[in-house]
Amino acid sequence: MKKLVLCIMAVLVLFVGCGKKNKEQDKSGAYVIQYWNALTGPDGPYMTKMIDAFNKEYAGKIQVKQQIIPNDDLYSKLAAAGNKEANKPDVILMDNTRIAQYVENGTLLDLTDLVNKAGIKGQDFIPDAWDATVVNGKNYAIPFDSYPFFLYYNKKILAEIGYTEADLKDTTMDKIVEMSQKAKAKGYVGMAVFDAWPWPEILMGFIKQKGLDIIDAKDDSKVNFQRPEFVEAFKQYVATVDKGLTNDPSVDGVIPFNEGKALFKWDGIWATTSFMALKKDSGVEIGLAPLPRIGEKNKMYTGSHNLTAVKKEGNSPEKNEAIMEFMKYLSKNSGQFAAAGQVPANKTTWSSETFKSMPFAFIANYTDSFFYAPKTQNFPLAGWGGLGKAATGYLNHTYPSIEEALKATEKEVNDQLAQLSKTKK
Predict the structure, then answer these.
(1) Statement: residue 95 has pLDDT above 50
(2) What does pTM read for this prediction?
(3) Which of 67, 225, 239, 326 suits 332 as a labelling partner, its CA being 20 to 30 A distant?
(4) Which residues of 287-306 are buried (b: 16+ CB within 10 A; e: fewer)?
């Protein structure tokens, strides 16, 4: 009888073990990783190419199944999964502005031990990109890329008004206004703008140069947009508008810029590919420069995509190590992703031929000027919901003055933050 019990127990152990293997591994024994990202644009195929290369190299060991999902749908789908781990991904390529929120609600896995075991070191990454992934002293992500903003310019117009590209390497907003005035005198638009999306990230950078953040991560229950530093930064931000050096803000400024009728336009790094294509398509040659500064030291808002792992109680240590191996691979090979129009966060990849060939490769010399969003889940509300609305409202004349724009949106954001605070309680 005793032998029979032991045999039954052995069979049960074997069955449970096989069940776990079937759950985490495919028939070849490879650990299966579900990977979600929102790369629905031209960058998607570049990521797919990297996944295909990984799956080929790790055949029989690790296999990644990728889902590309529109950004809002991705997080809705994650929320809908609830506690059903089978419906959740293993890895998400997550924007840095969301990390704090998903750490706070318990979604993300603490990667600290796995990062250390994998030999991944913060010194190999853009400093602020790495810092953005650390919450309460713990690693919750590996930075994948950074997407800074640039001052794009028309090379022909710049030369026509008597300046060279060297004049834009470390320029000021006052100088941009001066150049825009000369461009207007020759019949061009100085700065191409659009009130529907005025790139409040540029304004955030000017505010940072004044030594402030738009919201304090340590006290994120309210914002204070009416401080003198905010007003001064805003004045610099809209200087070309106030001086009549732009197109009609209600018309998308990309139109005159693409037509070769505007000197400047600030935009995200992702616009590089389309702007560079203008030379072939219509003969309009565009260059890139760092954003202008308003003080002694430049600060440029930068976002980032980060590799995060979803916490799953059912995952074995081996599965989590496979996840880390995948993340490490993407980071190590992220130089290839530069072709998608992003700056790899891993500095060791900057020597790759792909990155060095990109027109924005010079920005590697300016990463000390990068800064990332404060680590609070309330940042998007304060940033795009607050300053973004203030900028749009000022450009379309909803608000008669900068002061009124900041006052109104400060109240609106603070009312929403107060409501969120009540909801949490």
Answers:
(1) yes
(2) 0.90
(3) 67
(4) bbbbbbbbbeebbbbbbbbb
